[in-house]
Write a structure and sequence with these properties.
Elements: H1 4-17, E1 20-21, E2 68-70, E3 76-89, E4 98-108, E5 119-123, E6 127-133, E7 144-145, H2 158-161, E8 170-176, E9 181-186, H3 191-194, E10 200-206, E11 215-224, H4 226-233, E12 249-252, E13 269-271, E14 276-283, E15 289-293, E16 299-303, E17 306-307, E18 318-321, E19 326-332, E20 339-344, E21 361-366, H5 373-382
Parallel strand pairs: 2-5, 3-6, 5-10, 11-14, 13-21
Antiparallel strand pairs: 1-11, 3-4, 6-8, 7-9, 9-10, 11-12, 14-19, 15-18, 15-20, 16-17, 16-19, 20-21
Length: 386
């Protein structure tokens, strides 16, 4: 059974890393479209080298879980891009490791780089600055934010502005938080690579009439073709084409099950019986995801920053989230207290390779269920030793 000490550790970890709120060139890669060059001195008679494990293809630092960054009116955050390795399933978890050997992670201020990037939380009506300092990478980047008001030159889309942030350069983007709700940001330079290598994150604009729920969670959905990461990292056997992209990894907040259950690096939704629970969902990938919640009926209360009138809300348990779409659902924690799943109902998205379950799934955990053998088993699979 899980000890009380372990239960306290789990709750302390999940309070932040689950994103719950209560109130350089490597291995010959030199740029988009260029591939690592073969060794011209290699003989045709030489034996094929043993494939290098994905997590050893680079020596980049590892990503950390994303953090929440609160900005007041007139505040500024400095953000940069750092090449990293990213564990979709950690080595300590059942079925691990599953690794993306190179991602381009956002790093805000003095926080660690993460995939997804930090959640910026601001208040409606405020104005804030994001300064992109491109000092940690060798590629141009931009910062493009959906929905919120900005000037033409701050739209972050080089195809229409002619502006990008080259290596060792910087640019300050100014935004007005004029649309309450959930929005997302991403790099809009060579988006087919930069977004797909982890350069995405969320901005939440707290409405002026914000009514805090008992529990609030932020979940980003993402499908990945791991061959892109392997190709960029220099894997000799990588096979990737943008035209035949074939997703094989599916994550929530950058992690797949069972690591997504882990309170320190995953995103378990910890609730108490009777809680009003609000879950913000954003799709930062290419495919749509029908999100299903077990044993609870929820209401869709917001889409892309627009409130859904109460007369148009109804109880449901599956809601499709299209690419770039943001939706907020709300439900009461009124089920038999236990452990339930929130997952994509495209069942192959809830797999790691041929292993089920995995992929795009997180648990809803009632605190009173933490003393159960089922909870202990789930934590063992996730590699949590609390």
């Amino acid at each position: 059974m899980t000890t009380n000490h372990g239960r306290r550790r789990f709750l302390a970890a999940a309070g932040t890393t689950g994103l719950a709120t209560i109130a350089g060139c490597t291995f010959g890669y030199t740029g988009e479209g260029e591939q690592p060059s073969a060794d011209a001195s290699a003989s045709a008679d030489d034996p094929e080298p043993e494939p290098v494990p994905d997590h050893e293809l680079t020596d980049h630092p590892w990503t950390a879980p994303p953090t929440v960054v609160e900005l007041g009116d007139g505040d500024e955050s400095v953000i940069r891009t750092v090449p990293c390795r990213h564990a979709i399933v950690e080595e300590r978890a059942q079925g691990g490791p599953i690794t993306l050997p190179e991602v381009w992670a956002w790093q805000a201020d003095d926080h660690e780089p993460s995939v997804p990037g930090p959640i910026y939380r601001v208040k409606e009506g405020s104005e804030f600055d994001i300064t992109l300092e491109n000092t940690e990478d060798v590629r141009p980047h931009t910062f493009h934010l959906h929905a919120l008001e900005k000037s033409w030159m701050d739209d972050g889309a080089p195809a229409s502005t002619g502006q990008r942030v080259d290596p060792d350069d910087s640019h300050t983007y100014t935004f007005k938080a004029n649309v309450p709700g959930l929005h997302h940001y991403h790099c809009h330079y060579q988006t087919q690579n930069h977004l797909d290598l982890g350069m995405y994150g969320l901005v939440y604009v707290e409405p002026t009439d914000y009514d805090a729920p008992d529990k609030e969670f932020f979940l980003t959905l993402k499908d990945w073709d791991s061959e892109l990461s392997r190709d960029i990292a220099g894997a000799s056997d990588a096979d990737y084409s943008h035209r035949t992209r074939n997703p094989d990894r599916f994550t929530i907040n950058g992690r797949a099950g069972p690591t997504s259950f882990h309170p320190e690096v995953g995103s378990p939704l910890i609730v108490e019986a009777g809680d009003t629970v609000r879950v913000h969902l954003a799709n930062n990938g290419y495919e749509a995801h029908p999100i299903h919640v077990h044993n609870h009926r929820y209401r869709l209360v917001e889409k892309d920053g627009s409130q859904i009138p109460e007369v148009a809300q109804f109880d449901q348990d599956v809601e499709n989230i299209a690419p770039a779409e943001r939706k907020t659902i709300e439900f009461e924690a009124d089920a038999d207290p236990g452990i339930y799943l929130l997952h994509c109902h495209k069942v192959h998205h809830v797999m790691n390779d041929d292993t089920y379950p995995g992929g795009m799934v997180v648990p809803i955990v009632y605190e009173s269920a933490m003393d159960s053998p089922q909870f202990e088993s789930a934590m063992e699979m996730a590699g949590f030793d609390g």
